[in-house]
Amino acid sequence: MEIMTHQKIDQELCGRPLEVGDGNSRIQMQALDHMAADASGLVHGGFIFGLADYAAMLAVNHPNVVLGAAEAKFLKPVKVADTVVAQGTIIESKGKKQIVDVQVLKGEETVFQGTFTCFVLAQHILG
Questions:
Q1: Are 70 and 53 in contact (CB under 8 A)?
Q2: What is the CATH T-level fold of the domain 11-120, as seen in this structure?
Q3: Is the pTM higher than 0.90?
Q4: What does the DSSP 8-state code read for residue 123?
Q5: Smallest Cα–Cα separation from 23: which of 95, 96, 99, 86?
């Protein structure tokens, strides 16, 4: 399926789409050295949240989708060199409001879980 949103996003920082389907997405990201928060190689949670947000946006996949709210749970740490995959699935759709569940996995282990409230606007938010 064609990607219709967030087309200029830096995929090194937010992940590379593996699948974009009707109401779902899978995005893979390799944790890089410059994502580290400290000398131990702990990846800053903002990068994991960015990956999850991108997965939510691609699950909706509309040019005018924006994030309205998010509930996030960081369950396990991610380290530099880890590969993580975000899976986004629309679980509720009411008019312009889309609720997207996102799980981020490192192998079989869930490291992040979030519920993203997205809105599809009639025109671009900056328009």
A1: yes
A2: Thiol Ester Dehydrase; Chain A (3.10.129)
A3: yes
A4: S
A5: 99
In this structure, which amino acid lies at residue 57? M
Residue type, position 58, single letter: L
- The residue-averaged pLDDT of 111-115 equals 98
Q: How far apart are the C-alpha atoms of 84 and 92, rounded to whole Å? A: 25
Sheet holding 16-21, edge to edge: 16-21, 24-30, 83-94, 97-106, 109-120, 65-74
58-94 residue pLDDT tens: 999 999 999 999 999 999 999 999 999 999 999 999 9
* pLDDT higher than threshold 90 for residue 43: yes
| Residue-level pLDDT at 1 | 77
* Residues 85, 75: Cα–Cα separation, whole Å: 14
**CA 57 – CA 47 distance, rounded (Å):** 15
Angstrom distance (rounded) from CA 51 to CA 27: 7
Distance from C-alpha of 55 to C-alpha of 7, rounded to nearest angstrom: 13
